[in-house]
Request: fold
Amino acid sequence: MSTQAPTNQVKLSVLSLSENVGFARLSAAAFASQAELTINEIEEIKVAVSEAVSNAVIHGYGKLNQKQDNYVEIVMTLYQDRIDFVISDYGRGIADVEAARQPSYSSDPERMGLGFVFMESFMDSLAVVSTLGQGTTVTMSKKFTAKTSH
Amino acid sequence: MSTQAPTNQVKLSVLSLSENVGFARLSAAAFASQAELTINEIEEIKVAVSEAVSNAVIHGYGKLNQKQDNYVEIVMTLYQDRIDFVISDYGRGIADVEAARQPSYSSDPERMGLGFVFMESFMDSLAVVSTLGQGTTVTMSKKFTAKTSH
Amino acid sequence: IGEIRRYLRDNNPIRVSRSMRDIAYKALQIRDSLVSKYSREPSINEIAEELKIPREEIIFALDAIQEPISLFEPIYH
Ligand SMILES: Nc1ncnc2c1ncn2[C@@H]1O[C@H](COP(=O)(O)OP(=O)(O)O)[C@@H](O)[C@H]1O
Ligand SMILES: Nc1ncnc2c1ncn2[C@@H]1O[C@H](COP(=O)(O)OP(=O)(O)O)[C@@H](O)[C@H]1O
Ligand SMILES: [Mg+2]
Ligand SMILES: [Mg+2]
Reply:
């Protein structure tokens, strides 16, 4: 990560509800639209952010879903040549992050286990930090070419 | 205000930059689209939220704009039959709220002074609480007819 | 107020309004014409400038015309 100063930042804190996956997805697209990104790149960001937020809702909080103060946080920061998205939950955490990131790995037999694979392939970097019983933080970055004056 | 439990809530915290007025506007529309509102009513919410957020950026922080930690907060809460929007800044505050809410009143001769008028006419309630030197909180509510099962 | 009222004419309770659909299709058309003009994908800002519509409106419209559940998100059960 470079040390350049951010040019913009917004933070979202959303209740852990599946309705808010769509909300976060659209908000991420709106924030990303400030950057010189194409429609396709914005679609990729939407998929990656949806996957991370839905993981927080489904796996992070899961049945804890109903608890009033289960929030998922999404911090979006714009730099001159990249946007960072940091998605955090304070839910159950992941025992083995390496294993969880493998294609087709899912703790739920009904799911595809492709969330992390999509995040990794659609973004330019992905870092996952998790502590059992404390929660998970996913940091993703998307690069772009800074606008040239024209 | 009723005491019913909220069915959803999201909180945004955005740097005081004019780019984030459009961001907040779209986020408000995305959140409001969870409720049984017409497209027309969602447009009204977009106008009201934009006016409140742009007031925070322009008047609340104004020249203080560049300071790194000037954030505008937007809390959106969905209830069974209404949505509340609370927009807060920690900027200079308003000396005389009554006067500021009058149609055509503006402290800036280049502006129209219709922001509060729009908020009031497009929403079902508007409350403005402000302390000089500490900031301003605008609370607006939009009612709707609760969804009937279908 | 008249200007804004006019802007708010759409009183349709349907989720995707006619005007949103129009914005989305126009954005995709302009993208195609900018692709042939510049021989590269235009940014959303370039499309917004061309259309003279705020970029957030384009984002919202494009999102609205998508399938509500994408292949990537088998999450809603
Ligand atoms: N935020 C999270 N909290 C707890 N566990 C998680 C979280 N995100 C992912 N996981 C674990 O990692 C696995 C793989 O995630 P993913 O690749 O998105 O696949 P899927 O969601 O389809 O299971 C999940 O099945 C789950 O066990
Ligand atoms: N968040 C705020 N912080 C400080 N002053 C404010 C704020 N919001 C509104 N005001 C004051 O109230 C006046 C009226 O606001 P408004 O009706 O939106 O008109 P305008 O923004 O066109 O001036 C502003 O000119 C400003 O003096
Ligand atoms: Mg997943
Ligand atoms: Mg104003």
